[in-house]
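Worked problem 6 (solution included).
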Amino acid sequence: MAARFTQAFYELKARGGMLVVAPLAADDGERLGTAFAAIDPWAAYGYPSAALSKFLSAVEPGAPRFALQVGGEVAGAAVIRTAWLRGPYLQFIGVTPAHQNSGLGSAVLDWMEREARAAGERNLWVAVSEINTDAQRLYERHGFIQAARLDDLACDGRTEILMRKRL
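Solution. The predicted structure is:
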């Protein structure tokens, strides 16, 4: 049974305080797309803000978009593909610069794992750019290991690393 991530909102503890995970509003998706286009890895890839905004604002069955809120402020976004190779796939996570290194990524990964375990899933999945070494370390700290290297997937001349955590 696929993890659903269907509650109206989730309250998670993060190092920087309480994190609320709720459905991402389209206008927040548009604003965050512009913000994320200015930071790596998206800036290094030359990813257009309009494309990021469109992706974050989309409604797609089986891939809910979530706002990461701290103190009532939208501090980031996550997209989880709920049924992907016997477990959920964290398709996207972005945190605004003001909220980076405050434990939001760890809180999201812990939440994702709890939901997946409760649904009886076998795996958690993420993909990370080879240039995003901070994210690689985060995923490794949470028990993810490299499953594959995907050359030229998101951008020619770049490699994405598919990582898996066996539950």
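Discussion: Strands lie at 10-14, 17-23, 65-70, 73-81, 89-95, 123-129, 145-151, 159-166.
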